[in-house]
Please model this.
Amino acid sequence: MPKSKLVNPYDELFQKLTAPSNRRSEGQNLHLASNFLTFDLKLGWSIDRITIVGKAREHMWYHNGTDVRDVDFKKLMKLNEGAYVRAVGETAWKIVDQFGENVAYIELLQFMPGYARIDFNPNKIKTIISESMKTFIHTAFIEPHFSRADVACDIIGVPDDFIADYRYIEPVTYKVFYSQKGDMETSYWGSRSSEQQIRLYNKKVEQRKKGKIVPQEIKTWWRFELQLRRGKANDWAGMVVDSLAKFNNPAYLRGLSNIESIMIDGLIANHKNWGSLAKGTKSKYKKLLNSANENDDLTRAMIEIFELQQRRLKNELDTWLRGYDVTSEDD
Model:
């Protein structure tokens, strides 16, 4: 079994980054207000993780080559256990690829009797497996719908020290993790249990920690990831645009007074300071910080490329439910 996998610059991800719809931004020189550098930016949006929930069918026909059986959801999973479908207890299963890496997780929900869910990263599933999984979802679930959708933007070519200064301008829970050298590696806005959580992390570092090889020509690789749950997953497109409107680099702010600069430095240094502001003051500084978007070329490029690729993303989501409405309400 290979210990590492090559992240090929010509694989599906990088084809998306250089697709015709993205050609203008591919070579676009962006001006960094913080250090007056220019760089070539590559952006690409993808659906990074999907969770589908639905009522588990109680009657399905299972063909084993010699006879036909009437099985329920659990029996169907048990009959398919083998090299690629492995049991995790009595009511859960994981699907692995030829390398033994998990590509999907399926379980009967203990807190919702009669219901099941499947959780997977569509980017890790090969075409032949994805078609089988779509057939499985259509066959084994009644009225499946999304309960979670992670929408991600890969950002290649932006200097690490610049993108690490980006902030999500909302008074929500904020956590940041640094490397041993003191470099920012991951930032979280919002809690894991909330309907919306934003994550910005160093994808290049993450890939190397997993033992994967990143091509030398990729100097920096970050990922902006929006995790949406329950009702928020239904309005995924609107939530992406709304979140990006509040995601920017304070380096793009212009015309601040000394007091405003000090206040903003304090809010950025400690996110909890938002809680001590009066309503009017909080509104003022949220508006002021969001005004950075007027000059923020990176955020504007992310929005532009999302709008260009939105139809492709929606079509991808639709195919997993095979005609079911992707805006179905969660149970």
